[in-house]
Amino acid sequence: MTCLLEVSNLVMRFGGLTAVSRLSFTAMRGDITAVIGPNGAGKTTVFNCITGFYRPSEGEIIIHREDQSTLALHRLPGFAIAKRGRVARTFQNIRLFGGMTVLENLMVAQHNRLQAATGFTLLAVLGLGRYRHVEAEAVERAKYWLEATGLTDRADEPAASLPYGAQRRLEIARAMCTDPVLLCLDEPAAGLNPRESEELNALLLKIRAAGCSLLLIEHDMGVVMKISDHIIVLDHGKKIADGAPADIRTNPAVISAYLGDGDDDDEDAVPVAAQ
Amino acid sequence: MSDAVPAVSGRDTLIRYLRDAGGVGILALAIFVPFIGLRLHGHMNGLALGYRPKLLAIGVVLAVLARVLVLIWQDRRVHQGRAAWRAARIASAGKYVTPLLLGFAVLLPLVPGIANFYIDLGVLVMTYVMLGWGLNIVVGLAGLLDLGYVAFYAVGAYSFALLAHYYHFTFWECLPLSGLFAALWGVCLGFPVLRLRGDYLAIVTLAFGEIIRLVITNWISLTGGPNGIYNIPHPTFFGLNFNLGGGAGTFSGFFGIDPDPKQLTTYLYYIIFFLALLTNWVTLRLRRLPMGRAWEALREDEIACRSLGINVRNTKLTAFAIGAMFGGFAGCFFATRQNFISPDSFTFIESATVLAIVVLGGAGSQLGVALAAVVMIGIPALLQDLSIYRMLFFGLALVIMMVVRPRGFVSTRTPSIALGRRKLISSELISEGHG
Amino acid sequence: MIAYALQQLINGITLGMVYGLIAVGYTMVYGIIGMINFAHGDVFMVGAYVGIIVLTAFSGMGIAAVPVGLLVALLVSVVLCGVYGFTIERAAYRPLRGSFRLAPLISAIGMSILLENFVQTSQGAKDRAIPEPIPGGFKIMQQHGFVVQMSYMQIAIIVTTLVTLGIFTYIVTKTPLGRAMRAIEQDAKMAALLGVNTNRVISLTFVIGSALAAVAGIMFLSYYGVINFFIGFNAGIKAFTAAVLGGIGSLPGAVLGGLLIGLIEAFWSGYATIAYKDVAVYSILAIVLMFMPTGLLGRADIEKV
Ligand SMILES: Nc1ncnc2c1ncn2[C@@H]1O[C@H](COP(=O)(O)OP(=O)(O)OP(=O)(O)O)[C@@H](O)[C@H]1O
Ligand SMILES: [Mg+2]
Q1: ipTM of the assembly?
Q2: How far apart, in whole angstroms, are the C-alpha atoms of residue B416 and residue A97?
Q3: Are B309 and B294 within 8 A, CB to CB?
Q4: Is there a domain that residue B1 lies in?
């Protein structure tokens, strides 16, 4: 198995606050890597660094491509990380294009591929070139992900009118439409009911089977323990454990991080409590 | 009255009305005394005051009456469901309104015996339709608040005026150049400032509009300053001009008809009509292409766009530049139509008017913008007798129309692509952008 | 030449004070309901007109004591502009509260056009002038025959502005009203839930902002002596620029921005060309915003993702 994402010595400071300090970890190609930790541990901040929303104060974030070449994400401008690094993400607070339909959301996600076929837009405005063909392909890809997320029936409805669970799935479908090698999911199961949570597990496994690796932030230990191949535990911006689910469950440092913190007494979030 | 309004006794209503109207009366009195009740007059040694008690009384009574009417109207207005129903009605009426409007626009100059004035008015309205559609790309689609759109109008107009004045270019040669220059200006101005958000962007665009106007005003050696540029050529019809003298090389001479100012006006009318349709057509095409979808996505959520690999800055720039380009075309047309331009035609009020047309039309809606231009430009121009009160009513109408229809005439959005039937999206779900 | 620079400094500060007073109104309204109150500059113009009308009435009655007249004009203007601000908010903005961002903006532009033309049609388009209310001043220094003057009017303006800002700062920082204003600024919904009467506070914000504009209007009138219905536009745009330059939403920022713009104008007129002084102001605004996208003292708005 080869390394896909390599984070080394990542530091992120906000003024006096160090949200992430000297974090190093790797995510393997074809794995589901989970990042867990109490609230405020710095998980979302790590995601924001990886996907270019924050510029890390220190450290490196490297993508290893299949052809052995590497790409330093921390040097790319924000949008290029999805475009060239092929890292897609979802957000802890859902961010859909609410006034656009479900299908339009998925078409926007394929912007770069489609735009390349428009002949600097000029040809496509005049109805020339191969744009129509490429657009038909894009619609097919969108349909595939609509099917996979169970949204086909709602394709022509505005995204903002979908129920919460469907919006979460749409966000995943939209990210997948960018054709990523790494999908970063920020608490995808938050607010889902148990049945939806089960379906989400199946969807994530399907995505992995399709060849896309996953990086997953999740508080729902049911999800984490069941599907992840590798878990990284953060607390106060530092990595306190790193290993297979079975090791994490019994790791004393993890248990004390979850139980010892007065401000975080969410029983469900304790790894040992799961199963 | 609907059931949604709780039953209130007539006496309570009356008391409420009286109290409310009384309050309005007192406010109106305070507001009107210094301006309507009193009047400053120039006087031998300075100023003197005149009194207009009757006018003051009329003003206060009118204000109170207006308030009572508003109260009655508010009480009778039925609850929300009606609004949605009305929106759906308007949207479905759009199917018929569009071809009707279009047919009317095509035939207007051909109506037998129509006065030149009305064709000219058509030209004016159509210019604003085009400006509205151009700005709609920036504000309605991309969600960027541009308070200085007039800058591009000015760039287009002065590009042509200067090229014609110094190098004797013709309208048709300058039309594409004007658009190009305006778009270039759009890129130059947009590049450094498009990362600003919301109202910071608004003030900077406003500032750019003012800078361009001030430079034109003060660079007298080049632009003639406040005196403007005269003798800008009218467009020619395949080389034929519209001189009223007739004879060889003129439109009337070539076709063997009597010269008539209407011929030029009609020609101008169809030129701006064509330009406006071009704007509309390009916009509608772009909406279905990745660029247009990216604009709308940007309006909905910039951060999500970035996470999908969309170059936010370039996308904003294209919206700004294409909007500017159409503004430039319109400016070039304005110069050729007027024969004469001066900085007075490019004040902030112009930007505000065009923006008002876009918002009142329903940001993003092509039909709405056209309707709004007709209402806001056409109707005041017909009320010429009231010319000194025209802007007064214009301002008042803006306030009233916004209060009555904050989201504009046509506020629904048509999806750019659909698997099945395209269903209209209601305005509540559509974001307005923050840029 | 130091004397010349000193003179421009004095002129610039005087002008900047007037801008600052108007800018505070913009920034207050923006902070509390997040809208650009385009009609604010025109309230300033109304204030100046009320002033000239009161002064004319005084001289018509044969009362010659100008300082008293000015003081009365100030009070009447403050009260009437308060009424204007209150009414504008009730009629044109409150029905649009919580609506889409562009609707109040257009409504405000409409209100601005309405006010300008209301004054124009009711009082005429002509410039109106008054004689200098408080003539004279004292010499600060003299260099190579150039006399640096600080007129009594300038002193009066600076003192009045400082006193007004002092009262205003007290209101915002020390009174329950000020606390309520800041609460709404942080989170309007939460403040309403906790029992703050949002409507009342917003109304009062408009009243206070308009009162400050009235003070600025009287200052302007007595400093320049000439007004017309259009002065609100330019002063409004400048003051709005000042508010943005200082960081819109920040009260000290508004005053700072006003002072800076006054100084830029004075020095640019003094050392470069008067014709391009506004171009200089707007260019500096654009340049500052390029490097500090939220103005000098504005809060950086990092959107959390
Ligand atoms: N833009 C920012 N500016 C300042 N501080 C920030 C910023 N973003 C995050 N932080 C701080 O960094 C710390 C880590 O936040 P982060 O959102 O990464 O936590 P998290 O692990 O995702 O928590 P949760 O489980 O609640 O989502 C917090 O203290 C937060 O307040
Ligand atoms: Mg988080």
Answers
A1: 0.91
A2: 13
A3: no
A4: no
Chain C: touching chains (3 or more CB pairs < 8 Å): A, B
Indicate the class that CATH gives domain A92-179. alpha beta
In the numeric block, which tokens belong to residue B278? 């071009």
Return d(Cα A228, Cα A238) in angstroms, integer: 20
Element holding B30 (H helix, E strand): helix B10-32
Whether residue B425 lies inside any domain: the answer is yes
Report d(CA A76, CA A61) in Å as an integer. 10
- B3 domain residue, yes or no: no
Mutate to test the pocket of ligand 1, among A10, A12, A21, A43 (most ligand atoms within 8 A of CB): A43
pLDDT, tens digit (0-9, with 9 covering 90-100), for C159-187: 998 998 889 889 888 999 989 988 988 88
Q: How many CB atoms lie within 10 A of CB C130?
A: 20
Domain count of the fold of chain B: 2
Contacts of C218 in chain B (CB under 8 A): none
Is A41 touching ligand 1 by the criterion CB < 6 Å? yes
Element (DSSP H or E) covering residue C137: strand C137-143
Q: Which atom of ligand 1 is nearest to the CA of A48?
A: 18
Is the CB of residue A44 below 6 angstroms from any atom belonging to ligand 1? yes
Q: Give the pTM.
A: 0.91
d(CA C180, CA B177): 56
Q: What is the pLDDT of residues A28-68, one digit of tens each?
A: 999 999 999 999 999 999 999 999 999 999 999 999 998 88
CA distance B16 to A51: 59
Q: What span, in angstroms and rounded, lies between the C-alpha atoms of C246 and C118? A: 32
Asked if residue B55 belongs to a domain, the reply is yes
Coil vs helix vs strand at B411 = coil
Pocket of ligand 1 contains residue A270 by CB under 6 Å = no
CA-nearest of A63, A48, A39 to A14 is: A48
